[in-house]
Each structure stands twice: as structure tokens, then as C-alpha cells.
Design goal:
- With 137 residues, the chain is an alpha+beta fold.
- The protein is built from five helices and four strands, in the order H-H-H-E-E-H-E-E-H.
- Helix 1 crosses helix 2 and helix 2 crosses helix 5.
- The two termini are 39 Å apart.
Length: 137
């Protein structure tokens, strides 16, 4: 017996339909942001509050928009290339020195908070997306 199977739609279209398309991607990005919050450095909560969740290049995106977000994310002490010049680009201080995060408000705060969140909550993120796809069942 021979069986031929042909899709009526492109694989990408089927995947989009099954996962909720852009709404599903936005849901997943919002859920990732929620799960990342405890890991984001938050002395005055500015970094955690200045976040844009959107769709970029067909993917869900969580973008921390504070000017200092990059330095906090990489966790290295940075200094101005041109001391005394406001807004000058920054470079990693030599010798390299890690930032120390205040654990008062966010005891889990760390650099590369997305990786820390995935390490601790990957299953929760997958479960949330599964529930979303299944319609909350």
C-alpha cells in the first residue's frame, strides 16, 4: 500500500494558525517579560518599568529601553570613552569588573536576566504557551 500526503497550506501558515500567529507571539513575549521581572536589576524600578513588548521581524520581542539597560544586562562596569562629556559612548572598564547588584528589592537580580529566567522557568513558559494554544484548558 502506498500513501501520499500533501499539505493544503504552507508549513509556516499551519504553524502560525496553530500557535495563534502574532497574538501568540505577543502572548509569549509578555509571559517571558513577566517571568523575567524578578531577575531584572531594580534599585529604583526604572529598568523594569521601561519595557516595550512587541513583534519585531516576525518574532516576539522584549526590549528594555532605558539608556543603561545594555550595561546592566552585560553586568560589567563601564566608563565613558570621553570623561566629562555627557552622553559619550561607554566602554568596559579595564581590568574588567563585574557589577554588583543590590539584592534589597530583587534578590534574584542578575546580568543576562533572560538566561536566568529560562534556566529557572523554561517549563513554566512552555506550559503557559501550551495553555494559550489549547485555549486555556
Amino acid at each position: 500500500m502506498r500513501l501520499d500526503f500533501r499539505w493544503n497550506h504552507r508549513e509556516e501558515d499551519i504553524l502560525n494558525r496553530v500557535t495563534g500567529g502574532e497574538r501568540g507571539k505577543l502572548f509569549l513575549a509578555n509571559e517571558a517579560k513577566r517571568l523575567m521581572d524578578p531577575y531584572v536589576p531594580a534599585l529604583n524600578m526604572g529598568l523594569a518599568r521601561n519595557v516595550k513588548v512587541s513583534i519585531e521581524n516576525g518574532q516576539g520581542s522584549v526590549h528594555y529601553q532605558s539608556p543603561y539597560a545594555r550595561y546592566q544586562y552585560h553586568g560589567k562596569v563601564m566608563v565613558s570613552k570621553r570623561p566629562g562629556v555627557r552622553g559619550a559612548a561607554k566602554i568596559v572598564k579595564q581590568p574588567e569588573q563585574d557589577l554588583t547588584y543590590t539584592k534589597f528589592r530583587h534578590p534574584l537580580a542578575t546580568s543576562k536576566w533572560d538566561k536566568a529566567m529560562l534556566s529557572a522557568h523554561k517549563d513554566d513558559l512552555v506550559r503557559a504557551m501550551q495553555n494559550y494554544v489549547e485555549g486555556g484548558r
